[in-house]
Amino acid sequence: MKNKLSGIPLNMIRINDESWNKYIGLVKEVIIPYQWKILNDLEEDAELSHCIHNFKIAAGEAEGEFEGAVFQDTDVAKWLEAVAYTLFCHPDEELERIADQTIDLIGRAQQKDGYLDTYFIVKEPDLRWKNLMEGHELYTAGHMMEAAVAYFEATGKEKFLKIVSRLADLICEVFGPKEEQLHGYPGHQEIELALVKLYRTTGRRKYLTLAKYFIDQRGVGKNYFFWEMEQEGHRFLFPDFQGYDPKYSQSHLPVRQQKTAEGHAVRAVYMYCAMADLAYEFQDETLLTVCRKLWENIVTKRMYLTGGIGSSGILERFTVDYDLPNDCNYSETCASIGLALFGRRMAEITREASFMDTVELALYNTILSGISLDGKHFFYVNPMEVWPDNCIPRTSKEHVKPVRQKWFGCACCPPNIARTLASFGQYLYFKDDHTLYVNLYVSSQVKTRLSNEEVCVKVTTELPGKGKYVIKINSKGNQKKTLAFRIPAYGKDFQVQNENGTILSPEISNGYAYISGTFADTVLSVAYQEKAGFIRANPNVRADAGKVAMMKGPVVYCLEEVDNGKNLASIYVDADQEIKEIYEPEVMGGTLTLELEGKRISSDNWSGQSLYGTEKRKLEDVKLKAVPYSSWGNRKAGEMTVWIKELIR
What we know:
Blueprint lengths: L12 E3 L2 H7 L2 H13 L11 H8 L14 H17 L3 H17 L8 H6 L8 H4 L1 H19 L3 H16 L16 H12 L2 H13 L6 H7 L34 H17 L3 H17 L31 H18 L3 H16 L15 E2 L26 H10 L6 E3 L3 E4 L5 E7 L2 E8 L7 E7 L6 E6 L5 E7 L8 E3 L2 E6 L4 E8 L3 E3 L11 E6 L2 E6 H4 L6 E3 L6 E5 L6 E11 L17 E10 L11 E2 L2 E3 L3
Parallel strand pairs: 4-8, 16-21
Antiparallel strand pairs: 1-5, 2-20, 3-4, 5-6, 6-7, 7-12, 8-11, 9-12, 10-11, 13-14, 14-15, 14-21, 15-19, 15-20, 16-18, 17-18, 18-19
């Protein structure tokens, strides 16, 4: 296994992209302050968080009972992680002061032995480590560790890192193979990948060893969660967990025997991230092969066009191959974030661009769909089709929201989006000693060292959505270095040209085009065709049989009621037509929309109010407008659909 590619520090990357700035530009000025108000229960008409108050109770500085989900602490952890990434790029004394005060509070809530979880400190002190299946103690610890590592890297301050290291030390004492230790593993994976991060930051190998133990122990022998349930005094925290299926937590088999993505989608992809990390750290080709198989199962049989995963609204889980319903799917925002994290790791390890194709899908579609253009409203669930009238409680669609919410009682997604947007630069570029890998074509600038020379690379596009990018490279030009441009799966007629317009002949390997040179004040351009077009699903995807969707590059488009009227299910399109691409600066801050011709079933010839009849279908011409799926629901509440019936002539 080769040395994996490395990321580039976020403070060495500047993003100036028309599309992405609409979201990234909100992080510091809107998203982080808004979520801070939420965490302190200061936002009117929003679900209460209780998060900061819980820490104050745990620290003995406030009265009251613990409120919120058992994993409520993770909201503040992910918020702090978003703050860390933001401070890394945009130092801000006041924001850093607030973060430091929050970290101080977390430290005061920590117990003498290092334990840190306000639910069990305040509400269930006698149940520490006794219900790993539901308790989320290790999951919560993992998010704290991720936040602390990010904050240390951003500020150089060690306090938070020391807090989580004390917690990690305690967990290393409690869990492991020794007879006196607990032989369990997390009910919700996350700590495994966090322990790898903590090891890479502190150099303490016992953290890496524990991460490996959690992965290796999972699904081996008698299921640990069944053992827990047999213990005297066991009780369930969540009623749904009665009749527990180990597939839900991917503990049904040892991880090296797993071939299909099963169970709760977020748990799954967080675990796969850790497996990829451990495969690299221990040079475990067998584990990496399992990661490949699981990835392939997801992206070829169990993933939505938008990069959404987890098709079932019950238990937020994978079901079976090709089961991808549109109007009742779950596709949790956090799941797509986890998929992007998994794909990024696999791309770094393998240097294969295909992983970034899927990462790009998730980033441009489901993840962005999870947040409104004002930065203050969120989707937890990301359906492919919505009819607001039937999104009612106690039905199969009660989890589907036709409008974004200000917050959630279970609010894992909003701060997860915040940390993802704040760290978006991590996806743009990878590098090794001599090569810079350009993964996503986003207008940006990066500074790094290649072949022991300072190099500045600037990527710009003059015409958004036209598939042409200018790359300016500046260096002393004394040493040979390489640029590797990802060839998108959708990018037809991919070319690299020099500033004289000469088409170059790059070396092509694993989906990257490699161009080498000394690159002193060099200008290159990358161009490919990415016209908007129709796409069809595998016929085994029953929900999409006889339907088409529209994509332009990685961007999936949808129809909304605000543009196309009610009953979108009655619309047909001829997929042989040319789609018009129109940039509309007044639509949602500037949006490339698609215009096309369609047919709609007319109700004019339907007799009376009868539910059924023998009348023949009558079609009328309609003009249709499609907008990016990521931006649906930002204007008026109404119907939405990605998949449209295809008119067969």
